[in-house]
Amino acid sequence: MSAAEQQAVPATATAEDTPTSDTAAASSTTNASEATEAPATTDTPAPAPAAAVAPVSDESTAAAPASDEPPAAAGPSDPPTSESVAAPAATDSETAAKTESDAPAAAAAATEINDDAAPVATETKDAVIPAGEPTPIDKLWAAAKAEKHPEIWGVTLADPETHIPTRIILQKYLNANDGDLAKAKDQLIKTLHWRSQARPVELVKKAYLRAKFEGLGYVTQYRQEGSTEPTGNEVFTWNIYGSVKSIDETFGDLQDFLNWRVALMEQALQALDLNSATQPITAEEDPYKIFQVHDYKSISFLRQSPQVKTASAETIKVFAQNYPELLKEKFFVNVPAIMGFVYTFMKLFVAPKTIKKFHPMSNGGNLAAEFGQSKVVTLGEKLPANYGGKGAALEEQGTGPLLADEVHETSELEERAAEREL
């Protein structure tokens, strides 16, 4: 394995829930901390692997080992290093001192790797609006109508008085900004501008190079028996950072990586099926959210390549601005024991409600046990066997962006010209 590959680190930003620019300024600290924090796990930390690999951030916001910097897995030909050779057991006092000194660096790394952190909705009841006065939802709808782009998350926006999917989306923007209408409006308009330029729905139809992205991300969904409502769905996105074969290949073209990552998120939104929603949400109740699993098996959090850091930062920014209030819970599995300490450290600075969304686990095989309270009664059993379930492997039950051995790239101008001809 090349030196560059040993530096791979998974991108894990929880960007989906943090607004950028003006809105981001107000919530970036909260979002980053959300991503970095994961609820403590009862797992007994597993010993670190003999060979270490560098971690990566991928999609959402900054969070503990979390987008998301992509990690590179060590190969049999890798020369032993001081990091990959087991060290003599340290005394309790030595371990405590080392852990304490590593906390700031580990916390920083954690925030870099999470791409989908989301602002938490206020828990106050909806304000009473005088009769005849436009509601915050009405005002957001007026702002959206003034823009040229009519779609968000695959939903063609319409009058929220009669169109529940639109009402849900607008309410999510309010929730993400704690009910602040000005900030919600700013974030909404920026999302519409971004979607007009990035065309994420089209990115789902595009093929991506197999050599770069095979095995790196999946979407799975599980339905409550007898339910036909989107609220009976449980949707997961999976980021398998140990599958990165080459940092240069996967992250060398930043825009290509971002396009692939956005395509994965848009596929998850298709599975969430907001277009079929019939029940609105409030600041307190919102079932239209997604589970995220970031697997860091064979990844080291000690080194991060510049390419991975850049990809992680950009992913976090994109997801924070354009995918608010979509994260249900985030699980960081097969993480080093140090991340448990980072979680304890971060609890001092982050709201308990936020911490509850993040779960670091040293043993990925215990993941299935976390879903005993799901609306899908046998959800844990449906997960892949290597995550403690009885279901098929991710490669069999999951879907992901289209892959091809060769990809013919056409320019945006060529694509738009072809659309005009049609």
List keywords for this structure.
Phosphatidylinositol Transfer Protein Sec14p, 2 domains, five-stranded mixed sheet, two-stranded parallel ribbon, 38% helix, 11% strand
Report on this model:
By secondary structure, the chain is of the alpha/beta class. The chain has 2 domains: 3-75 and 102-119 and 203-404, Phosphatidylinositol Transfer Protein Sec14p (3-Layer(aba) Sandwich), CATH 3.40.525; 136-199, no CATH class. The chain has 16 helices and 12 strands. The protein has a 5-stranded mixed sheet with strand order 7-8-9-10-11. A two-stranded parallel sheet has the order 1-3. Helix 4 (136-145) runs parallel beside helix 6 (181-198) and helix 10 (254-272) runs parallel beside helix 11. The protein starts with a helix and ends with a helix.
Proportion of residues in β-strands? 5-15%
Helix tally? Answer: 16
Overall structural class, as computed from helix and strand content, comes to alpha/beta
Mean pLDDT: 75
Outline type: globular
In the CATH hierarchy, the architecture of the largest domain is 3-Layer(aba) Sandwich
Strand order of the largest sheet: 7-8-9-10-11
CATH class of the largest domain: Alpha Beta
The helix content, as a percent range, equals 25-40%
Whole-number tally of structural domains? 2
In CATH terms, what is the fold-level topology of the largest domain? Phosphatidylinositol Transfer Protein Sec14p
Poorly predicted runs are 1-114, 116-125
Summarize the structure.
The protein is of the alpha/beta class and 422 residues long. It has helices at 3-6, 21-36, 92-112, 136-145, 164-176, 181-198, 200-203, 210-213, 247-251, 254-272, 306-322, 338-346, 352-355, 379-382, 394-397, 412-421; strands spanning 10-11, 13-14, 57-58, 151-152, 155-156, 207-209, 217-223, 233-240, 290-295, 327-333, 358-361, 402-404.
